[in-house]
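Limitations
The structure tokens in this dataset are predictions for the assembled complex, not deposited experimental models. Users should treat interface geometry with appropriate caution, especially where small molecules or nucleic acid strands are included. An illustrative entry is reproduced here so readers can see what is and is not provided.
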Amino acid sequence: MANTFGQLFRTTTWGESHGDAIGVIVDGCPPQMKLDVQDIQKELDRRRPGQSEISTQRKEGDQAEILSGIFEGKTLGTPIMIGVWNRDAKSKDYDHMKDKYRPSHADYSYDAKYGIRNWKGGGRASARETIGRVASGAIAKKFLFQEFGLEIVAYVKQIWEIQANIDIDVVTQDDVESNIVRCPDQDIAIRMIERIKEARKDGDSLGGIVECVARNVPPGLGEPVFDKLEADLAKAVLSLPACKGFEVGSGFGGVVLTGSQHNDAFYSEDSRIRTKTNNSGGIQGGISNGENIIIRAAFKPTATIMKSQESVDVNGNPITIEGRGRHDPCVLPRAVPIVESMMALVLADHALRHRGQTGT
Ligand SMILES: Cc1cc2nc3c(=O)[nH]c(=O)nc-3n(C[C@H](O)[C@H](O)[C@H](O)COP(=O)(O)O)c2cc1C
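Predicted assembly:
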């Protein structure tokens, strides 16, 4: 069962959407790092449901409890277990879906694989699973900042057809948090919010793109063959619910450039090797080159919508299905801290692996 991610900085998530609790075990975090529950809580607050009029109205405080691995405010080097109680699960909303398959959700494929599924709130396929990733990501972010001054910022780049223009080298988390859609291009943010409200009113949903940058990344993180940094980042991001596309650097856009337009020319600055452009997205040969790491994640429109849809029940009989309950009309605003967390988990893991192999 692949509920664990990472080789040295290991994240194991547990729990279902409407179970008693949900959380994570983080194994491999270096000892003697100052860690407070607030470090984790501030990230969970960015992810939690009910945070704005354009997210799901499920009301969860998502209060983190650290159950092990910390002593006198510092990490022990032992497994850190963090849990959050599920307080506002309204399983009744799902009663009518028990024997039905929601189009483009995980209901049918879970049944096909296990022959049993927790149909309440989507069970393990729910985005509540990402609480564990965000809690672990908060620890990874703190470690990376202390070690390298490394910072990670993600934001909503696109909702539906509405695209923002953002200077990736300077954008800050304060810019991102300045509006409820988490798009630092303020005029475009207003249009995105209106479009999401329109979709919700219409009983429909929207998708979009989250862009994420890591700055102050040391050169040398990543492996040359199977565990290339971009391969691990792709796995990290594509393992998120509703994520259907991944790009690094120029991504799919690079195919319309020629080599001479696309190549990142080297130069030397203060005895550091740099590149003039960054079409490589900070990774060459699977290894970080010291430039900003830039990735993009495409999220599909939320599967559960309030419109009538054709489907089948568990016996294959045709039915009409209509979503009920509380859902995100667009997952993008809440996906921002989750994508940042996955970037942090990959970089923390590779930083420890690099240290293990080279001693630096
Ligand atoms: C932050 C976030 C919130 C989500 N909220 C919902 C939701 O309210 N309703 C829903 O049907 N899917 C939601 N999803 C997506 C489903 O969990 C996902 O589509 C489902 O598990 C099927 O998996 P797949 O889309 O990766 O194939 C959310 C995803 C994320 C990242």
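Some entries come with short summary sentences. For this one: The mean pLDDT is 96.
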